[in-house]
Write a structure and sequence with these properties.
With 222 residues, the protein is mainly alpha-helical. Helix content is 39%, strand content 4%. The strands form 2 sheets. The chain has a two-stranded antiparallel sheet with strand order 1-2. A two-stranded antiparallel ribbon has the order 3-4.
Amino acid sequence: MRTPSTLLAVCLVGALAACSEDRQRVDVEVPRTVSAPVLDGEPDRVWLRDSARRTGIPARVLTAYARAADRVAADGCELGWNTLAGIGRVETSHARFGGAETSEAGDVRPRILGPRLDGGPGIRAIEDTDGGELDGDTTWDRAVGPMQFIPTTWDRWGADGDGDGVRDPHSIDDATLAAARYLCDAGDDLGDDAGWVDAVLTYNNSGAYARKVAEAATEYAG
């Protein structure tokens, strides 16, 4: 069973009643898939400059979205960078939640941590699974990083997006590639409306969440 990951709203914090919404009844206007011009792993500089200005997404974060989408496209997954950006906005405001910033190396500091999953009102109870290695909490788990992975989910899907030999959920490159691969596995065909909705709901099983991601992704598609 997949573990949903989130920080800013929805199932883990119980902010919206839609968490139990049946997937077949979710009404979402699915965004079109948009690719970025990427050559040898790097997005075109003019595209990056203009797109960062148009969307308000930090250029370093946008670079990670474009790279990750390009990587999974090579494996046949039709995932647009705009969908990753939609998730990134809803989860952590593009790695800016709590005043965080992304360095040129891709490190997000201060680290972004979700609420303690201690079974409080509207919060799912997940006892510590990583010895506090990722989230600094040896009692309860917390979602971590710019794409908000729970430690057990990261253990399975963590990726080395920047090629430094380390899988770090607090690295924008690693976290974004992990999210891309997770979504590609979750949806049979992300180019299909039903596949896209399935993938996003697997990331967070809330119709309201899927609609927010779709709205943001549509906006970024321009």
